[in-house]
Structures are given as C-alpha cells and as structure tokens.
Amino acid sequence: IYEGGRDGDGSSIIPSAIMEVLVCSESFALINHGEIKNLSDLGMRNIRGLKFCSVAECDALETIIGSVRVEVLDAFPNLEILELYRLSNLKSIIMEEGLPMQPRNSCFTSLRELLLYNCLSIKKLFSWGLIQQLHNLESISIYFCEELEEMISVEDNNDYEMLECSREVLPKLRKMTFKYLPNFVGFVKGISLFWSSLLEVEISGCPKLKRLPFGVNNNAPNLREIRGKYQWWEALEWEDDAIKTRLSPLYIGF
C-alpha cells in the first residue's frame, strides 16, 4: 500500500523504493496520490507481475493506461482484480489514441473482477478494443458513477460491424451489478449480444435504463436471477411481451 505523492527529493512521481518493491509484487494499492495521471506511468516492467491492484482518491488520475503505444499494449497481463475508488477525474480505463487494441495483445487478459466506486467522470466503461481483451472477466460491479452512460461504447463503423458479427463478448462473465448510475442508458447501443455465462444481474438506481439486453433469441441461456426495485421493473420497456414473459420468473424484487 502506498499513500502519498512524489519521492522525497521530488524527482520521481513515485519513490524509487516503492518502485523497487513493486517490480516483485503481486498486490498494489495506491491511495491519495495527487499527481499521477495514469498507472502506466509506473512503468510496464514494474506492473507486469501484479494480480491485484486498488486505486483510491487519486484526483489527478484520468485513465489506467495513458495511450495505446506499442510498449503499453501488454500492460497488466497478469492482473486479476482491479478496484477503483473515488477517482473524481477518471475518464477511461484505456486512452485509445494511437495504435488500436488488438486481440493478440495481453493487456488485461487475465482480469476476472472489475469494481468502480464513485468515479464521477467516466462516461463509457469499455471500448470495442478493450472488450476484446477481457475474455476472462467474470464480475463487473459499478456503483455511484453518476456520468456513466454505456457499458460498451462503439464509435467506429468498422468496430460496430465487427461487434455485430461476433455478438459474443465477455464469454466468462457471470455477474453484473450496476447501482446508483443516474445517467446509465444501456449496455451497448443497437446490438443484441450473446451472454453465454451470465448468471446474475443486479440493477438499482438506474432510472434511465429502460431496456434489458437479455431475452432476445435466448441470448442469455444461463441467466438465473435479475434483481431490482419493483418500480423500475414495472417501468421497463420490452421489444415484445414474450421477452417479459421469459424473464419475469427470473426477477427478484426489493
């Protein structure tokens, strides 16, 4: 756990002693650092071995990986759990400027659990480039991210076509929790994806979410439980009544 700012002489954004320990560590927590803008500034060599990473109250942090350059395409290859708390300026997980993400890259390919709590500036959770890397992701938990609008953002027509063709993303995803996201409107715009491993969904405090991405062509065959407030469930819009009929037995209200 490291809490604070620069090295004692001000020469390094993280003290050299911390860097020396980091390179052989599997767990790292960064708290209340006022200058670091992205975790890739810690150095690719230093973060390759991490399996657990928690970042909290770092007000300057804007993204986890600062840009998609050759040297950062394989960042965090062993990371299994990423927790992000109270990062007021976090805008993205990866700033995709430069080289596009490719499936052969190992960036975040071991990630199993992702948690965001009270990250007030992020609007889109995953890009198409990033989503291709997350084939081991099992759990997504998002709380109090008031600007978040979409889970998967597709900006480029080519990416949209590729996503529409593949349909299945996040093949190991088992659980999604979305709570207190006042601007969250949907999972991915205009595409019905296949959620092959999804078991549980919990949604609360998402008043703009009017439709669920499940139930079309049995695209979530293993879904067992949908939790949410009764008023929200009753206000949902359905493509047809058959979808509501299919999903209603899975609903658990509170």
From TrEMBL:
Q: Does the keyword Mitochondrion apply?
A: no
Keyword Phosphoprotein attached: no
Q: Which UniProt keywords apply?
A: Plant defense
State the source organism's domain of life: Eukaryota
For this UniProt entry, which residues form the secretion signal? none
InterPro entries given for it?
At4g27190-like_LRR, LRR_dom_sf, Plant_NBS-LRR
The record places domain Disease resistance protein At4g27190-like leucine-rich repeats at 104-225
What's the protein name? Disease resistance protein At4g27190-like leucine-rich repeats domain-containing protein
The source organism is: Davidia involucrata
